[in-house]
C-alpha cells in the first residue's frame, strides 16, 4: 500500500515461527481496527443523531465523510513518509493517534467535536494502514509473504462482515462504546508492536511526498461533499452551494497541477497512462459510490422506516457482507478462465441487480426475508466479485517498483467513492415527511445507486490487464 519495499534497512530483527506469528497477529489486528471503523459507525448513526438533537442527516453525514476525506488524502503521503523515516515509528504514531482519538470521540459533547475527533482518527488510520503492510512485508520471509498478505487482507475484509453486528451489540449500551472498544485494543497493539515488530524503511525513498497536494485533494473532495449534502437545504443555485463547487474545482485542479509538477506527487500522472490502472481507479470510485450509498441507505431504511433497533439492524445487514469472502474465493478460482474486467463487471452488475431488487420490493410493512434479504444477498455476491478483483487487477500492469504505490492510489480512489456515495445518498434523500415521501426518496436513491454500479460495470470492461511489457516500461521511468 506504500512505496516499493524492494530494499529495506531493518533496525531490529527477530527470527522463529512464533515471532512471525506475533508480528502477523499484531499488524493484522491494527489493520482490522482501521477497517472496522469504516463499517461500525453506520449502525450507530441513528443513536448519534438522537443524542445530539437538531442534527440533520446532512450534518451527521460528516461523521462518515470527514473520516473518509482525510483518510483518502493522507494514505499515500503518510505511507511514503514512513517508508523514508521508519515504518515502525509511523505505525506506532498512527495507532497511538487512532486510539487517543477514539477515546475523544467517545467523550464528544456535541456533533462537531465528534466530527473533528473522527478526523484525527482518520489521520491515525492513514498512517497505520500502509505501515502495517510495509512492516509485514519487510519482516516476513519471502516464501511466506504471499500467505501473510492474504491473511492480512482477509482480516481486513472480515471487518466488513463483523462491523454491523459488533456495532449493533455495542450500541445497545451506548453509541459511545463504538469508539471506546478501540482503546484497549489499541493499547494492546502498541505494546505488542513495541515488543515484536522490527522496524524497516525503504532506502530508495529519498524525497518528501507532496503534502500540499494532499491538502488540495482533501479540500476539493470535502467541498464537493459539502455542496452535495447541503444542496437540498441551501438550494442548488444558492451562493453558498455555488461557492462550494468553485472551491471543489480549485482544490481538484490544484491537486492535478501539483501532481504534474511535484517530483514526488500523491498520484504520479504516468501511472494513469497505464490503461488497466486508470480504468480500475474509475471503477473503484463508481463502485464505492454505490457501495457506500447502499450500505448507509440500508441502515437508514431499517432503523428509521422499519424502526428496528441497532442490534437487529446489524444482524440484518450481516448476511450481505458474509457473502463477500465466499464469492471473492469463487472469483479467484475462475479468474484463469474469465477476464478480470469481466469478473469486476459481473460484480458491479450483481450489486446493481441487488439494489434494484430492494428498490422494487420493500414497503412500509417489514418483510425482511421476502423483500430485503434476497436483494441484499445478491448485492453481497456482487461485492465479493467486484472489490477484490478491482484491487488486484489495478496493479497487474504496473512495474513491481510501483505496485505498492498503485495499491495505495486505488485505496484512495475507493475512499473518495465512499465520500461521494454518502453525499449523493444524503442529497437524493433530502428531508421528506410522511411515509409516501420517504419511500419515494429511498426508491430514487436506490435507483441512483443502481445506475452508479451499472456505470461501474461498463468501466470495468476496460481494466483487464494487457500483461505486456509496454505499460510496465512507462512506470519504470517514474521518478522516486
Describe the structure.
With 480 residues, this protein is mostly helical. It folds into 3 domains: 12-208, Growth Hormone, Chain: A (Up-down Bundle), CATH 1.20.1250; 210-263; 270-480, MFS general substrate transporter like domains (Growth Hormone, Chain: A, Up-down Bundle), CATH 1.20.1250. The chain is built from 17 helices and 2 strands. The chain has helices spanning 17-51, 57-85, 87-106, 111-139, 142-171, 177-180, 182-196, 211-234, 239-261, 275-305, 310-317, 319-334, 340-361, 368-394, 400-429, 435-460, 469-476; strands at residues 8-10, 200-202. A two-stranded antiparallel ribbon has the order 1-2. Helix 5 runs antiparallel to helix 11 and helix 8 (211-234) runs antiparallel to helix 9 (239-261). The relative contact order is 0.14. Residues 1-13 and 468-480 have low confidence and may be disordered.
Question: Which features characterize this protein?
Answer:
1% strand; disordered N terminus; 480 residues; 17 helices; Growth Hormone, Chain: A; 3 domains; two-stranded antiparallel sheet; mainly alpha; disordered C terminus; globular
| Number of domain modules | 3
What is the ordering of alpha helices and beta strands?
Answer: EHHHHHHHEHHHHHHHHHH
Q: What is the number of helices? A: 17
Shape: globular
CATH superfamily of the largest domain: MFS general substrate transporter like domains
Give me the CATH architecture of the largest domain, please. Answer: Up-down Bundle
CATH class of the largest domain: Mainly Alpha
The portion of residues assigned to helices is: over 70%
What is the number of strand segments?
2
Q: Give me the CATH fold name of the largest domain.
A: Growth Hormone, Chain: A
Counting helices, strands and paired strands, the structural category is mainly alpha
Main sheet makeup: 2 strands, antiparallel
Give the distance, in angstroms, between the N- and C-terminal Cα atoms.
15 Å
Amino acid at each position: 500500500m506504500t512505496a516499493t519495499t524492494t530494499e529495506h534497512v531493518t533496525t531490529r530483527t527477530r527470527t522463529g515461527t512464533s515471532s512471525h506469528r506475533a508480528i502477523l497477529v499484531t499488524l493484522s489486528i491494527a489493520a482490522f481496527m482501521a477497517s472496522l471503523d469504516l463499517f461500525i459507525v453506520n449502525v450507530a448513526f441513528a443513536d448519534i443523531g438522537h443524542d445530539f438533537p437538531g442534527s440533520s442527516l446532512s450534518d451527521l453525514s460528516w461523521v462518515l465523510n470527514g473520516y473518509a476525506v482525510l483518510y483518502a488524502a493522507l494514505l499515500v503521503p503518510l505511507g511514503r513518509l514512513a517508508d523514508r523515516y521508519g515504518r515502525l515509528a509511523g505505525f506506532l504514531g498512527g495507532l497511538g493517534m487512532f486510539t487517543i482519538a477514539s477515546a475523544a470521540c467517545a467523550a464528544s459533547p456535541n456533533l462537531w467535536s465528534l466530527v473533528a475527533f473522527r478526523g484525527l482518527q482518520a489521520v491515525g488510520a492513514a498512517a497505520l494502514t500502509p505501515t502495517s503492510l510495509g512492516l509485514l512485508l519487510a519482516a516476513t520471509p519471502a516464501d511466506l509473504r504471499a500467505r501473510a498478505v492474504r491473511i492480512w487482507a482477509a482480516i481486513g475484509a472480515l471487518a466488513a462482515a463483523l462491523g454491523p453486528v459488533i456495532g449493533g451489540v455495542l450500541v445497545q449500551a451506548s453509541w459511545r462504546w463504538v469508539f471506546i472498544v478501540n482503546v484497549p485494543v489499541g493499547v494492546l497493539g502498541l505494546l505488542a508492536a513495541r515488543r515484536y515488530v522490527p522496524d524497516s524503511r525503504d532506502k530508495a525513498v529519498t524525497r518528501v511526498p507532496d503534502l500540499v497536494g494532499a491538502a488540495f485533494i482533501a479540500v476539493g473532495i470535502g467541498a464537493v461533499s459539502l455542496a452535495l449534502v447541503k444542496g437540498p437545504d441551501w438550494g442548488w443555485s444558492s451562493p453558498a452551494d455555488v461557492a462550494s463547487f468553485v472551491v471543489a474545482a480549485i482544490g481538484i485542479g490544484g491537486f492535478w497541477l501539483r501532481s504534474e509538477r511535484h517530483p514526488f506527487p500523491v498520484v504520479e500522472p504516468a501511472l494513469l497512462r497505464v490503461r488497466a490502472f486508470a480504468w480500475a481507479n474509475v471503477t473503484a470510485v463508481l463502485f464505492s459510490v454505490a457501495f457506500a450509498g447502499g450500505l448507509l441507505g440500508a441502515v437508514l431504511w431499517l432503523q428509521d422506516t422499519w424502526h428496528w433497533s441497532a442490534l437487529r439492524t446489524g444482524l440484518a445487514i450481516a448476511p450481505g457482507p458474509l457473502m463477500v469472502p465466499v464469492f471473492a474465493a469463487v472469483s479467484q478460482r475462475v479468474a484463469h478462465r474469465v477476464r478480470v474486467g469481466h469478473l469486476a463487471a459481473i460484480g458491479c452488475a450483481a450489486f446493481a441487480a441487488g439494489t434494484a431488487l430492494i428498490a422494487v420490493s420493500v414497503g412500509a410493512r417489514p418483510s425482511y426475508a421476502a423483500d430485503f434479504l434476497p436483494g441484499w444477498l445478491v448485492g453481497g455476491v456482487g461485492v465479493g466479485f467486484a472489490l477484490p478483483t478491482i484491487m488486484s487487477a489495478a496493479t497487474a500492469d504496473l512495474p513491481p517498483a510501483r505496485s505498492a504505490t498503485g495499491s495505495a492510489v486505488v485505496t484512495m480512489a475507493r475512499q473518495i467513492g465512499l465520500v461521494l456515495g454518502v453525499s449523493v445518498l444524503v442529497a437524493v434523500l433530502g428531508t421528506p415527511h410522511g411515509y409516501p415521501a420517504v419511500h419515494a426518496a429511498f426508491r430514487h436513491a436506490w435507483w441512483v445507486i443502481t445506475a452508479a454500479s451499472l456505470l461501474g460495470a461498463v468501466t470495468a470492461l476496460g481494466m483487464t490487464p494487457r500483461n505486456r511489457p509496454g505499460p510496465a516500461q512507462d512506470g519504470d521511468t517514474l521518478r522516486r
